Amino acid sequence: MDEEIESLQEQLPCLKENEKKIQGELNSLKAIPLLSELRLEIGKLDDEKKSLAARLAKVHGDNSTEVSLQEKESVRKDWKMWQNQRRARAKICRDFWRKCSETLPEGVTGEELWESLGLEGTLM
Predict the structure, then answer these.
(1) Average model confidence (pLDDT) for the chain?
(2) Is 34 helix (H, G, I), strand (E, B) or coil?
(3) How far apart are CA 33 and CA 42, in angstroms?
(4) Which of 1, 28, 33, 62 has its CA 20 to 30 A from that of 79?
């Protein structure tokens, strides 16, 4: 009887290790959704997709308007004007920053001044 108890106690650590492995596999299998649940979710998503497609078709059907060539040309001209404004202002800002950073106090870098002024964007 003592020999049988010893034999079983020697097997115990191996059995506990196997139990942990099998428990881990079981937990990973439980985490996988069932095929029936996946089919149900796919059906719901298909219904939602059809509903959204119908709404989108309705919206596109109601608001179909043509833009005239004159309006397109006007928008292009405005776009060019604002792009030129942006370039001019960027050049002014760069020139102004160069002037400001020429006379920095001793021990202050351009990056520190930029941050202390609360300026956004990248340092020029």
Answers:
(1) 88
(2) coil
(3) 13
(4) 62
Dihedral angle over CA of 22, 26, 29, 30, nearest 10? -170
Report d(CA 14, CA 34) in Å as an integer. 32
What are the tens digits of pLDDT across the range 96-117? 888 877 887 788 888 887 788 7
What is the reported pLDDT for 23? 94
Which residues, in sequence order, are CB contacts of 121 under 8 Å at separation 6+?
A: none
Helix (H, G, I), strand (E, B) or coil at 109: coil
Q: Report the number of distinct structural domains present in the chain.
A: 1
Could you list the residue range(s) of the whole structural domain that residue 101 is in? 68-124
pTM: 0.40
The 10 Å CB-count burial string (b at 16+, else e) for 10-33 is eeeeeeeeeeeeeeeeeeeeeeee
Per-residue model confidence as pLDDT tens digits over 19-58? 999 999 999 888 888 889 999 999 999 999 999 999 888 8
Domain-located, residue 107: yes
> Is residue 9 in some structural domain?
no
Would you tell me how many other CB atoms lie within 10 Å of the CB of residue 114? 18
